Amino acid sequence: MRHFGHLADDVRERLFLHQPVDFALDSAPAVLSTALGATLYSPATRSTLAADIRKQAARGVVSMVLCLEDAIADHEVPAAEENLVAQLGGLAAAGDTGLPLLFVRVRAAAQITDLTARLGPAVRLLAGYVVPKFTEESGGAYLEALTAAEERSGQRLFAMPVLESPELAHLETRREQLFSIARLLDKHRERILAVRLGVTDLCSAYGLRRSPDLTAYDVALVAGVIGDVVNVLGRADGTGYTVTGPVWEYFPVQERMFKPQLRRTPFAEAQPPADGVRQRIIEHDLDGLIREIELDRANGLLGKTCIHPSHVPAVHALSVVTHEEYSDAQDILSRDGGGVLRSAYTNKMNEAKPHRAWAERVLLRAEVFGVAREDVSFAELLGACLCG
After folding, report:
1. Which residues pair with 160 in a beta bridge?
2. What angle do CA 211, 217, 221 make, to 5 degrees?
3. Separation in Å, CA 26 to CA 101, 117, 367
4. Which residues partner with 321 through β-bridges?
5. CA torsion 152→153→154→157, rounded to 10°?
6. DSSP of 78-93, one letter per residue?
7. Residue 277 class from Cβ within 10 Å (0-12 exposed, 13-18 middle, 19+ buried)?
């Protein structure tokens, strides 16, 4: 699979200076964690689950979570498990290729070993499991179950812990909880693909819910938790993990309180002009999502939890490395002895040592999401994704 593989060859050639590379379930963890992109959640109760997976893959989705936790009611769990096993079994028997990275979100540690055994040969389709409400107290059992499931099945399985518990929301317990989680994850480092943020649950601890006109970073309590999680678990010194962005909850058209946050100019100047794309974004409240994705990146997050297919193109279009970013990263990494140099775009200072970790991350993202041509804007990338 690869990002933007659903676009026609001539469209990719027009958009990309360097096209995204192929990756697979057996690719290096650093590649897979970067490649997650927009991770689309789907309830495991859906009778059309296998068809949905195929359809979303054809639309450019490269990672999906099949949910047995909050997306379904408690009484639906047994039927959802049976459906999940049957649907993945059908996909495996059909020999489908090019499927997204598939994860199962469980609600108990025992489900990991049980489902892995019940899947049988179909376990080869799984990339791993998503662990909800991950804490120091609950996390160990999940990770031990994952280790056992991996050993018995012979399939490499990753964990993606979700940080969303009240212990993280509450100031008096957050610090120790984060350091304890860091110690626990370090014991299982080879199995931790990414750390996910459950902002909806964090907000629920205080009875909060942000509107579509506000980002997670406009909610001070949530912004504080995100900053602390990145501080402890997102470091660039080799001890950190990929931390993914929080879910954007909105997709229906609603009455707006504030003006759209998207300027007209980038869409009017796109080739071809993308005014219709801008209007579509505004009508579906996606301008708020785009703003949040930008703030995710500025705060050290990569990728995003998504609950609706309409969110995927924006996440992926904004993940493409711009020509300017690529130029800066190459210049920085070409200077082994340090020093300062003016960027090729003559609009900023590039410092070889302080900016090195940033540049390394940019080049890894460039490998997975590609590098846009110099004259290609986000508006054109998004327009191609929406129309492709």
Report:
1. 130
2. 90
3. 11, 20, 16
4. 371
5. -110
6. HHHHHHHHHHHHHHHH
7. buried
Per residue in 15-26, pLDDT (tens digit) is 999 999 999 999
Distance between CA atoms of residues 317 and 295, nearest Å: 15
192-211 pLDDT per residue, tens: 999 999 999 999 999 999 88
What b/e readout covers 185-209, taking b as 16+ CB neighbours within 10 angstroms?
A: beebeebbbbbbbbbbbbbebeeee
What would the two tokens of residue 132 be? 């909800």
* pLDDT tens per residue, range 101-138: 999 999 999 999 999 999 999 999 999 999 999 999 99
| Architecture field, domain 29-315 | Alpha-Beta Barrel (3.20)
The answer to whether the beta carbons of residues 250 and 212 sit under 8 Å apart is: yes
Q: Output Rg (C-alpha) for the chain, integer angstroms.
A: 21
The predicted pLDDT at position 273 comes to 55
Mean pLDDT throughout 66-89? 97
What pTM was computed for the model?
Answer: 0.91
Whole-angstrom Cα distance, residue 197 to residue 246? 5
Examine the pLDDT at 256 and tell me if it is beyond 50: no
Top pLDDT among 146 and 336 is at 146
- End-to-end, the C-alpha distance of the chain in Å comes to 16
pLDDT at 277: 61
Structure tokens at 81: 């498990």
pLDDT of residue 185 exceeding 60, the answer is: yes
Residue 146 in this model has a pLDDT that exceeds 60: yes
Query: Which DSSP string do the residues of 140-198 spell out, in sequence order?
Result: HHHHHHHHHHHHHH----EEEEEE--HHHHSHHHHHHHHHHHHHHHHHTGGGB--BEE-
Q: Where are the alpha helices (DSSP H) in the chain?
A: 9-15, 29-35, 49-58, 77-94, 109-119, 136-153, 166-169, 171-187, 199-204, 220-233, 265-269, 275-283, 286-298, 312-317, 323-333, 356-369, 378-387
The answer to whether 43 and 67 are in contact (CB under 8 A) is: yes
Strands 349-351 and 340-342: antiparallel
Element (H, E) at 105: strand 101-105
Taking alpha carbons only, the member of 79, 140, 77 closest to residue 105 is: 77
* Domain extents in the chain: 29-315, 323-369
Predicted pLDDT of residue 274:
55
**Bigger pLDDT: 268 vs 301:** 301
